[in-house]
Design goal:
Length: about 70
């Protein structure tokens, strides 16, 4: 695997984040994170009893927020 980053997005340290980690990465409150998950705006996966947020979902969510801030409709 190539160690250089050739994509437009910087690599995240992990592929999946637990909810408390996603809260820290996004700098949002626990209640906001869970509301965004419930509404389908933030994707998660479940492994056993653990809910995980894929790194790609964090990037997609951040891009969604940027588009909304620019006035685009999702």
């Amino acid at each position: 695997m190539d160690a250089t980053n050739t994509g437009a997005q910087p690599p995240l340290a992990k592929l999946f984040y637990k909810i408390p980690e996603a809260i820290a990465v996004l700098s949002l409150s626990r209640s906001v994170i869970y509301e965004e998950i419930r509404s389908g705006r933030l994707r998660t996966v479940t492994r056993g009893r653990t809910r995980l947020v894929p790194a790609a979902a964090l990037i997609e969510y951040a891009e969604l927020l940027e588009r909304e801030a620019e006035g685009e409709v999702a």
